[in-house]
Structure formats: structure tokens, C-alpha cells
């Protein structure tokens, strides 16, 4: 019996989620507590996109997927494209 098909998220989506996650972690480190729910939402989105259950695994998986996409010769994301995630900012 074959395993379930693996869906590989778009590299732009991963970059966007990683950027948003990093921005929110920085805000949290600065004491900006109002970002807590957004950080949880982005963490869940990262886990869903990478098929993992904890954010540490999601970060490692996202990094590996992005490295693999670079190895396949995919086109780089245009500058600024990784910062667009309006559904996460709402």
C-alpha cells in the first residue's frame, strides 16, 4: 500500500510565514504582548503548511523545504513578496 501523497507548500508561502513568525517573535521579545494571538496563529499555520505538530519542527522543515527548492533551481521570490500575508495580519 502506498503512503499518502505529500503536499509541498509554495516557497513564497513558507517565506511569508517564516518572516511573519520572526517579526512576531521579535515583537514578543521586545515585550509587545499584544502580538500573542497572532504568534499562535502563525505558528499553527507554519505547522499546517509543513505537516508538523510543533513550531520547532515546522521551522526546521520549512528551512529544509526552502533549501531543497533552491537546489531544484526554482526562481527566487521577488523582493518584498515574502512579506505579503494579509490574512495573517487581520
What share of the residues does DSSP label as strand, in percent?
under 5%
How does the overall form come out from the CA principal axes?
elongated
How many angstroms separate the termini?
A: 42 Å
What oligomeric assembly is this protein in? Answer: single chain
Number of strands: 0
Give helix % range.
55-70%
Task: Look at the helices and sheets and give the structural class.
Answer: mainly alpha
Main sheet?
none
Roughly how many Å is the radius of gyration? Answer: 14 Å
Q: How large is the count of helical segments?
A: 4
> Would you tell me the overall average pLDDT?
78
Poorly predicted spans:
76-90
Helix and strand element order: HHHH
Describe the structure.
This protein has a domain at about 10-70. It has helices at about 10-30, 35-50, 55-70, 85-90. It has 4 helices and no strands. Helix 1 (about 10-30) runs antiparallel to helix 2 (about 35-50).
